Prior knowledge:
Largest sheet of chain B: none
Number of strands of chain A: 0
Low-confidence stretches of chain A: 1-5
Number of helices of chain B: 8
Number of domains of chain B: 1
Helix content of chain A: over 70%
Distance between the termini of chain A: 72 Å
Structural class of chain B: mainly alpha
Strand content of chain A: under 5%
Number of helices of chain A: 2
Oligomer: heterodimer
Shape of chain B: globular
Strand content of chain B: under 5%
Largest sheet of chain A: none
Mean pLDDT of chain A: 74
Shape of chain A: elongated
Mean pLDDT of chain B: 88
Amino acid sequence: xxxxxxxxxxxxxxxxxxxxxxxxxxxxxxxxxxxxxxxxxxxxxxxxxxxxxxxxxxxxxxxxxxxxxxxxxxxxxxxxxxxxxx
Amino acid sequence: xxxxxxxxxxxxxxxxxxxxxxxxxxxxxxxxxxxxxxxxxxxxxxxxxxxxxxxxxxxxxxxxxxxxxxxxxxxxxxxxxxxxxxxxxxxxxxxxxxxxxxxxxxxxxxxxxxxxxxxxxxxxxxxxxxxxxxxxxxxxxxxxxxxxxxxxxxxxxxxxxxxxxxxxxxxxxxxxxxxxxxxxxxxxxxxxxxxxxxxxxxxxxxxxxxxxxxxxxxxxxxxxxxxxxxx
Lengths: 86, 231
């Protein structure tokens, strides 16, 4: 049985629908803000870690880290290949 | 065209989304006339229909990225597919909630199980809700990405089929925005189209924002691993 049209208090429903969407967006933004805060904390701890090792956390240092990481990955890859060959 | 696309940044996209969404809803509330049959409650359609259209298109975009991932094996396409599904699921939830509110105000009930448009959208939404447990049930990252891509393609193919089936089905009471027997008049169509473009821009902004956030997290993990490896 299909219900009959019952249009009443339309302002309330229109306001409610737009508020629900706004609320969903706000929840999403709040979750993303929490993620951003976590990234910032992680960045802070990495900067500390880097400084403790004598670096100053500059872009040059990050470049060096990237080079080191690539070298480590190359060594790891070679080790895995050797193990697989055995 | 390629240069124009390169000049788009997240900041510019976000500003464009805010401006177009703002303009769209200003037009919907202050320029578009009230619907003769439904009255003021029809204003929900300027939110509900663009949300539904963009969510469905977003799921198809996710399927396209999934195809590119399976063809190239590039994880960036998997990330794009995942984030497209994620934002579309949020939009889909908003579609169901705003639709229920409209149904209550217009039909007097929150939900009507006999209406194919409502039920089919719910089925598609629930289908995509199963994407998360499927994806995170697999530990191996490569397998996880491959299986998620297969899911995104299969479910993505279901979206237009579902849309067609609903159009072919005998509509009960859910109104049709575009139909051969007369859809929206021009005075309502233009505000609606501006809202649709604005919602599309908002979707693209959120997808880009989340992709950037994921890339930043991944880069941080790489730096941490490198620092710990050189300790």
